[in-house]
Every structure is written in C-alpha cells, then in structure tokens.
Amino acid sequence: MKKTTLLLSALFSLSVAHSALADDSLAQVKSSGELKIGTEGTYPPFTFHTISGDLTGFDVEIGRAIAQQLHVKPVFVEGKWDGLIAGLDAKRYDVVMNEVGISPERGKKYDFSQPYIASKAVVVVKNDNDSIHDFSDLKGKKSAQSLTSNYAQIARNYGAQLVSTDGFNQSIDLVVQGRADATVNDKLSFLDFKKHRPDAPVKIVASEDNASASAVLLRKGETSLQTAINDALTTLKKDGTYQKISEKYFGEDVSH
User: Fold this and answer.
1) How far apart are the two ends of the chain, measured CA to CA in Å?
2) How crowded is the C-beta side of 174, counted as CA atoms within 13 Å?
3) How many other C-beta atoms lie within 10 A of the C-beta of residue 30?
4) What secondary structure letter does DSSP report for 225?
5) How far is CA 228 from CA 7, 121, 143, 233, in A?
6) 163 CB-contact burial (10 Å; exposed 0-12 / middle 13-18 / buried 19+)
7) Signal peptide location in the record (predicted)?
8) CB count in 10 Å sphere of residue 25
9) Cα 77 to Cα 60: distance, rounded to the nearest angstrom
10) Which tens digits make up the pLDDT trace of 112-162?
11) Rg value, the chain, Cα
12) What is the DSSP letter of 72?
C-alpha cells in the first residue's frame, strides 16, 4: 500500500512537472523578446498597408499594444488568410490576429484570448442585384469567400456555391465583376471599404441579428501566454488604449 502511494505521488509530481515544462509559451516569448503575430496585411481596416507600405490597422495596433504590455517587440508575419492557421500549427508565429472568429470548430484544436472585437456578418451584392434579399436567397448562388473563414461557413450553411478568394477585397471585386453573386463578409470591413470607395456599386442586403466575437488565436494548451494576453487586453480596456484605437478606426467601441 505504501509503495503504491509513493508511486502515485511520484507519477503525480512528474505529471505536474511535465505540464509546467510543456507550457513554457510565455517564457519562450519573453526569452526571444518578440511576440510573433500572424496576419493577412490585406484586410482593411483590421490589417493592411498604407500608401507608403507600412503595415497598420485595428488588429495591428491592438497587437502592438499587447506586445508592449508583455514588454516584448511585436513582429508581424504576413500570409494569405487560408494559410494563416496552418502557419500557427507550423510555429511560424506565436498567435494569429486577423479578426479571427471564435467558433466551436476552431475551439476543438485551438485556444482563444478573451474577445476583443464584435461584428455582424452581412450579405453584400452588386447594386443591380434583385435576386438576393436575405441569407436564405444564397442557396444555389455563387458566393465569393476565403474558404476557411467563418463567413464561408455561413454561406455554406445557406446552400451557396463558394468561389475561393484571397480576402475581402478580392471577394468584393468578384461581386462587382459579376463572377460571384454575393459575398458574406464583415460589416465593419464593408463600412470601411465604402468610406474609401463610396462609388463602388455594391450594397448590403442582409445582416445577422447577433454579433460574432473575434479573438487572438493561440495553439492549444499555451495557457501562460493566453493568460498574459488576456491580462494585457484587460489593461488596454481599462486604461483607455483600446477605446482610442477603436474610435480611430470605427468611431465607437467595437468590443461588444
């Protein structure tokens, strides 16, 4: 009995030690002095390039502010949306920040920070389109989508035929060109797009009732880094940094 107890105690100690060793995610970030962030760079106003070529956007500024709270340098690694999550698996970066929607499917394999943005999915069509008035009208229609996005899944759920794109701008272009009937996409992105291209012949015809939340995406089990990022986001919301960045891009608090 005594030997069994000692054995169980030893196994428990090894398990605790292994767990502590396995989750050195924050320690690795601190040791490297960098928080590597995977992002698209082609998804305004969340992550895009200025005319001078500088990377900027809502997610980019929030990412920089999080890194500052962690006392490390933010390093952005750009890639196409459909490959961003694969890059996280390959450990090309520590997290992904690209308005990544929280979903049960992603939650099976990945962890999320606390939500830091909320937006509604909308159906966008060309101005002269009279056949689509609601999500249900997407059935059998061509919808331009990034195939691994939450918006693509919404389009699938309504029976749309998906046309693969690299991101928001290409999706809109295909709708304008008539190569797709619609795109299901982010309302905040569309409003920003129309702000810069008011003459673009596209319109919103339907909007979800409930907003969906987005967060920082992390590899499963990297609890120490997840906790540190959550603490950073909490601080940014308390000290007004989040509000300032949010109002800069959207004119309001978009955290809820």
Assistant:
1) 56
2) 21
3) 17
4) H
5) 35, 30, 38, 9
6) buried
7) 1-22
8) 20
9) 11
10) 999 999 989 999 999 999 999 999 999 999 999 999 888 999 999 999 999
11) 21
12) S
